[in-house]
Amino acid sequence: MHFSSRLVYAGPPANAYATLGILLQLYLSRNSTLKYQGTPRRWTVIAVNTAPPVLWAMVFTGSLIYGIVNPQLVQRDLTGMYCNISSSVPSSVGAALVALLSVTMIIFEIMTLVLLFKNWTAFRRLQVSTSS
Questions:
Q1: Which UniProt keywords apply (predicted)?
Q2: Beta bridge partners of 75
Q3: How far apart are CA 113 and CA 109, in angstroms?
Q4: Which range marks the domain in which residue 53 is found?
Q5: What is the pLDDT of residues 70-120, one digit of tens each?
Q6: What is the mean pLDDT of residues 22-32?
Q7: How far apart are CA 63 and CA 68, in angstroms?
Q8: Are 26 and 110 within 8 A, CB to CB?
Q9: CA distance 121 to 128
Q10: How many degrees, rounded to 5, is the angle at CA 100 between CA 62 and CA 84?
Q11: How far apart are CA 20 and CA 40, in angstroms?
């Protein structure tokens, strides 16, 4: 089984989680600023930053095991540039993860918007106080 077939399935969920991580960092930093806690807790920052590579490794390993157990399903692309698995299982798992993470992103975008809207005057005061 070629290395590229595992990368095809591991990349999209890891990228989606990395984007979610950016949104989580934005929400957590704004929330902690409003609660006068300074920066977000160290363990949350570590968790948000380590989750994308961990998710990538999990999907990568899962598709590796799936390809080893079912080598007859690993096929070259028509261009011959990369391999994929002819079963829909790895792509369905990746698509489900991306869909779940996308819904979670939308939720955190809404939560951030509500947080900013409710505390708009506090953020304006912060902007004025830091510029003086």
A1: Membrane, Transmembrane, Transmembrane helix
A2: 84
A3: 6
A4: 3-131
A5: 888 888 888 877 778 888 888 899 999 999 999 999 999 999 999 888 888
A6: 86
A7: 8
A8: no
A9: 11
A10: 35
A11: 16
Domain count along the chain = 1
User: Which DSSP string do the residues of the chain spell out, in sequence order?
Assistant: --HHHHHHHHHHHHHHHHHHHHHHHHHHHHHHHHTT--SPPHHHHHHHHHHHHHHHHHHHHHHHHHHHH-GGGEEE-TTSS-EEESSSHHHHHHHHHHHHHHHHHHHHHHHHHHHHHHTHHHHHHHHHHHH-
* pLDDT attached to residue 16: 93
Q: What distance in Å separates the CA atoms of residue 38 and residue 30, rounded to the nearest whole number? A: 10
Q: Which two tokens stand for residue 48?
A: 């948000």
